[in-house]
Amino acid sequence: MTFSRHLKIAPSILSADFANFGQEIEAVEAQGADWVHVDVMDGHFVPNLTFGPPAVAAFRKHVKTVMDVHLMIAPVDPYIEAFAEAGADIITAHVEAGPHIHRTLQAIRASGKKAGVALNPGTPAQAVAHVLDLTDLVCVMTVNPGFGGQSFIDMTQKVRDLRAMIGDRPVHIEIDGGVTPQTAPLVARAGADVLVAGSAVFKGGSVSNPAVYGDNMRAIRAAVGAVSGHDIV
Ligand code: DX5
Ligand code: ZN
Fold it and tell me: What is the CA(27)–ligand 2 centre distance, in A?
């Protein structure tokens, strides 16, 4: 995984057919997904339940790109090794999930994986100011986490602040929640390079009609390209 600020689209399989994850992952990758985003929810940190490490290990067999695992769980530290062994490339923990985000990021790096830190909409950019050297990705939530298909909450000022704080460090800025062709240009222009999108990628398509996934991703890229020329700097 070489670092680049080119625009990346990371479909969230939370919006895929839950009876058919393997084919869904292969379909979005064949249609141009850069990464695959996996939303892990515990019914405690967020009011919804999704996948544990055995499910993530099963997804791994189908992911040829980058498996981006977003942990919406508390506590997080006891599960890092299990998600690392399940084959995550990036493991992202929430700053709000516990008192020791610095220790959590150290543990993710020690597991050999890229370390991400996520910020809920109510959490300021400043919360990650002292952990940027331990971080490979900052995930800016543009919905309150827990569900797909929610409306975008405008965090463009937070993205601008993070972009300035990050400077030349090789740290991605990822946007998660409510990304559409309408909202994507706002955050890309502010400095985000990874766009998670669930409903906006999967809507209208299926494994028997996967071209729609490609059309949906092209619509997001085209909207961003119109403002940034695809290269996020
Ligand atoms: C929300 C998840 C998101 C979600 C995005 O808690 O972290 O990844 O699946 O879904 P959309 O793109 O539909 O808002
Ligand atoms: Zn997510």
Answer: 19
Whether 209 maps to a domain, the answer reads yes
pLDDT tens-place string over residues 175-218 = 999 999 999 999 999 999 999 999 999 999 999 999 999 999 99
Distance CA 117, CA 105 (A): 8
Q: DSSP characters for 58-94?
A: HHHTT--S-EEEEEE-SS-GGGHHHHHHTT-SEEEEE
Beta strands, E only, 67-212? 67-72, 90-94, 114-119, 137-141, 172-176, 194-197
- Residue 39 designated active-site: yes
Q: What is the CATH number of the domain that holds 190?
A: 3.20.20.70
Distance 12 CA to ligand 2 centre (A): 7
Question: How far is C-alpha 197 from the geometric centre of its chain's CA atoms?
Answer: 8
- Please report, to the nearest 10 degrees, the dihedral formed by the alpha carbons of residues 216, 218, 220, 222 taken in order: -150
Domain count, the chain: 1
Q: Clarify whether 176 is annotated catalytic.
A: yes
Task: State which ligand 1 atom lies nearest to the alpha carbon of 179.
Answer: 12
In a domain, residue 127? The reply is yes
**191 close to ligand 1 (CB < 6 Angstrom):** no
**Looking at the domain assignment, is residue 95 inside a domain?**
yes
Q: How far apart are CA 155 and CA 151, in angstroms?
A: 12
Query: pLDDT tens digits, residue range 50-59?
Result: 999 999 999 9
Q: Is 11 a pocket residue for ligand 1 (Cβ < 6 Å)?
A: no
**Domain-located, residue 34:** yes
> 174 - beta bridge partners?
139, 194
